[in-house]
Amino acid sequence: MSPRLLAASQDATLPAATRQLLQQAANGLTTLARAVEEQRLRYRNLFDAVPDPVSILAEDGTVLDLNRAGMQAYRMSRAEVVGQNINMLNPELPRDHMVPVWETLKRGGTYVIEVTNRRADGSRFPVEVHSANMSFDGRKCLVAVARDLSSRQEAELRYRELMEAIDKGIVVHAANGDIVYCNSAAMRILGFHEGQDSSALQLEQWRFVDAGGHEIQQHDLPVYRALRTGKVVDSELVGMYHRHDRQLLWLSVTAVPQFEPGTATPSRATTLFSDVTELKRDSTLFDRAQALAHIGGWEWDVAPDRMYLTDEALRILGTRQPLLNRQQFLACLLPDERPRLCAAINQVRAGAPAFDMEVQGRRDDGQPFWIRVIGEAEPGDLGTSRVTGTLQDISADKLAEESLRLRARTDPLTGLMNRDAVLTELGARLAAASDEEMAVLYIDLDRFKMVNDLLGHSAGDELLVQAAERIRAAVAQRGMIARFGGDEFLVVCNCAREPDLPERLAQSVLDAFTPTFHVGKDEFPITASIGIARSPGHALRPQQLIQNADVAMYESKHRARNGWQHFTSELAQQQQDRLHIETQLRRAVDNEEFRLVYQPQVDLKHGRVIAAEALIRWQSRQLGELRPDVFINHAENTGDIVRIGSWVLREACRQIAQWRDAGMGLVRVAVNVSYRQFAGDDLPKRVRALLQEFNLPGSALELEFTERVLIEDAPATLRIFADLRALGIVLTIDDFGEGYSALNYLRRLPIHGLKLSQLFTEGVPHNRSDVAVCKAVAAIAHSLGLGLVAEGVESEAQRQFLLELGVPVGQGFLFSPGLPADDFARRLALPLASMT
Q: Which residues form the PAS domain (predicted)?
């Protein structure tokens, strides 16, 4: 009661009615104060009765109150906590941690978070905090209840330890079916090593069957049904056949769905299973299920000689009658296989370990089969009275192996035997028929490269397929045919009874190539050059016999294409000479055996020398002087032309600089560049380096290229020519008209001129065909604004014809052969009249 009200109610000077009202007011206040105190005590008792730590927080996170459980959990008094920010208890919270809390609470939700709280001694413990709105002393606040998770984590740990101790396989799947946990027993039952993690359990490694032997799709496995339906799948029999190990495992499987609190859809599923393979081994159910994996069971009771085979085993063997004893069982196998299986069974009876072998047989309907037979003595049978095992149909695997073997032996484009296969087969035939005569025909397509270069590899492939079909039709069953590589084919035949068979086959192939080939709308005359070598006369080993046939083929190609040639001792000597040349050629640059001569290029009208072409000469220390037409082809074939070409470029630049330094001025020298050089390393870069080294302008050098550059990769060709032209170098297409020029590319290339081949100039002015070609080339050059140089000018009549045709420059014996550098310098100083 208020003292002032009490005093007033007792004041005698006041009217009685007033004193009575004041007394009633004083009594009411006393009652209200008592009620407020009781409410406070009730709140405190309830607040402190909550078993979890509870905090009252202001909007900024300041702790306004803490219950007794909180003081015990944090090991701090209320006075130590109240007035502090919640970060004191949750040091890992971010500074703005209250923002998402209030946003959630404003939407009417409850904010839940897992954090780590700190005790007074600094130790930590995990909690799950639930926050909600409340009013405290008239202020907008929130209440935060922290549930200690330590005991739950300990329970989870004990649960995991229990799972590892159980001898049943346990696998936990996520909602999407992914494996998130499997215990050691599961790994052991499924055949995985200790230490492998659950990622090794890939369901794709297995095929699944039900109790009736019917295949189960993955989505119908117990665990997926449990996840889909939310119901327990109890004690279902599942067979797991491992695709690689070829082993069937039977499991008794139970799948249990698991739900998160408040949800109706499983978030996980736990599969529990036991290995029941042994229990199923002798059952009829097992025999039916094995049929999916094509595995049957067998048992031989030794004493009475009785055989027992499951239905699947009888089906695999394809027998119409029951097999009652071992002899009847063995009769299903090929004669050569029976002793092998008998020996293996007898060894098991004698104490040997189980056997595992593959044998071949034939079914009653005549179809062949392959089976894998596994057998062992019955465990615990001291007298080995029974031998049991399985047999598996592996015919499909054997057919697949045979298919792979055939693919490994077959050229994928033509379907013929490939190089490795024909070498193996020829070796076997030579070894088996050492006293009989074998022959090899080496077939090379003439002008195939022209089609391949002009129309591309796709057209080339089509031509090769057509060629293979023609060869196959020409040879028929009289020989073995192979594609040896590129556009080269082999025919191998036994000619012991028909000595002239190789020649007849060669002529048949040539006749088959008489009709033109069609590729799309284009038509091409493609012929063949054939070399023939015989064994044992020409060689005893496959490689040598093929090499000798190759030598004969090259001779046929050089003499006249579209023909055949026998290998002879003279050709063998030529082959030896070629190898000798190539060996010496490889050393020629290092031995300084090359030199250059310079043939003048002359103004046909006035006889003035305007340039020179550098021509290479080779004086071999062992072989003597060799003509360029002899060794250049060898250099192209071996790749030595790149190194030789680099030497020629450098030597020409050196000579130009020497002439300049001797006061002769700049003489432009033309140098032939092979396609290998053109397509190899950066040609513009190397030429630029040489010009810088000898301080020469690009105009001092002319590079001559064959027509092949016109039919190769156009973008790269254009780039190289543009880079060379930017250096000031004169660019020319050599021997124009000999090949199959792509005029579209010629129009686009930044070249300066063409060189008319000696093949055509030597026939003018009397040969009409040569005259026509020369006129055509001259017309092309004039229309494209290109310079024109004629090679091989040897008579005055040729010079006059070329002048009338508008050809300004020529070179040839009419003016001079190739001259050593000093002779060329002296010739350059002669009067004009003496040049002709």
A: 39-92, 155-192
Decide if 660 contacts 666 (C-beta within 8 A).
Answer: yes
> Which CATH architecture describes the domain 410-567?
2-Layer Sandwich (3.30)
In single-letter form, the type of residue at position 266 comes to: P
Please list the helix, strand and coil fractions of the chain in percent, rounded to the nearest 5, in that order.
45, 25, 30
Q: How far is CA 107 from the centre of its chain?
A: 55
Cα end-to-end span (Å), the chain: 150
From 3.30.70.20, 3.20.20.450, 3.40.50.300, 3.40.50.11690, which CATH number describes the 586-835 domain? Answer: 3.20.20.450
Which tens digits make up the pLDDT trace of 303-334? Answer: 788 888 888 888 888 887 778 888 888 888 98
| Whole-angstrom distance, CA of residue 758 vs CA of residue 64 | 110
CA angle 242, 247, 248 (to 5 degrees): 85
- Nearest CA-CA partner of 547 in 502, 507, 494, 490: 490
Catalogue the E-assigned strands of 545-689. Answer: 563-566, 594-603, 609-620, 624-626, 669-673
Distance CA 758, CA 763 (A): 9
Alpha helices by DSSP H, listed for 173-259, are: 184-189, 222-229
- Strand 669-673 versus strand 730-736 pairing type: unpaired
Domains 153-280 and 586-835 are alike in CATH topology:
no
What Å distances lie between residue 655 and 591, 649, 662, CA to CA?
19, 10, 10
Q: Which two tokens stand for residue 718?
A: 């254009």
Q: Match 């001898």 to its residue by tokens.
A: 167
Residue 402 identity (one-letter amino acid): E
Beta-sheet strands, E only, within 693-820: 701-705, 730-736, 753-756, 787-790, 809-810
Reported pTM: 0.45
Contact 677, 643 (CB under 8 A): no
Which listed CATH number (1.10.3720.10, 3.40.50.2300, 3.30.450.20, 2.40.170.20) goes with 153-280? 3.30.450.20
Map out the domains of the chain as residue ranges.
Answer: 3-45, 50-148, 153-280, 294-400, 410-567, 586-835
CA distance 602 to 612: 8
Residue written as token pair 């027993």: 185
> Using an 8 Å Cβ cutoff, are 345 and 334 in contact?
no
Low-confidence residues in the chain, pLDDT < 70: 1-14, 16-41, 43-44, 150-165, 193-203, 246, 280-294, 378-385, 402-404, 406, 433-435, 453-454, 681, 710-714, 737-745, 831-836
Whether domain 294-400 has CATH 3.30.450.20: the reply is yes
